[in-house]
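User: I'll paste a sequence; please echo it back and then give the predicted structure.

Assistant: Echoing your sequence first, then the prediction.
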Amino acid sequence: MSLSSLRLAFLRVTTRTFTSTSRLAMSRPVKLTESERVEFLPPLHTAKWNMVPGRDAIKKAFLFNDFNEAFGFMTRVALKADKLDHHPEWFNVYNKVEITLATHDCQGLSVRDVELAKFCDAAFEPFQK
């Protein structure tokens, strides 16, 4: 297990915390380190996640047969995003869903973005032709 993988597992538990009136304590995400970028981003680029020009963010477009498939995919991603407390920027027109991932709390890419991108790809697999 690599050091970055260990960090990813540890970050899922907690790194930095803050207190909220509505929640006890939530992990505060941190930007990916250079070594994590080397480990995590190339597989995402291979899966057609692209860097967003002018931002530390990744983006991908997903095409479906129809709106029902696209909306079903979005629903599945929304449920996962809610569990991760990490919500995508997305745009949907009929059978196309465009997703942009970045972590606003750290103003860039975090392990949450990597995890949600991998989930999106897995959720899309049943719809591929």
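The domain at 34-127 is CATH 3.30.1360.20 (Gyrase A; domain 2). The first strand starts at residue 16 and ends at 19.
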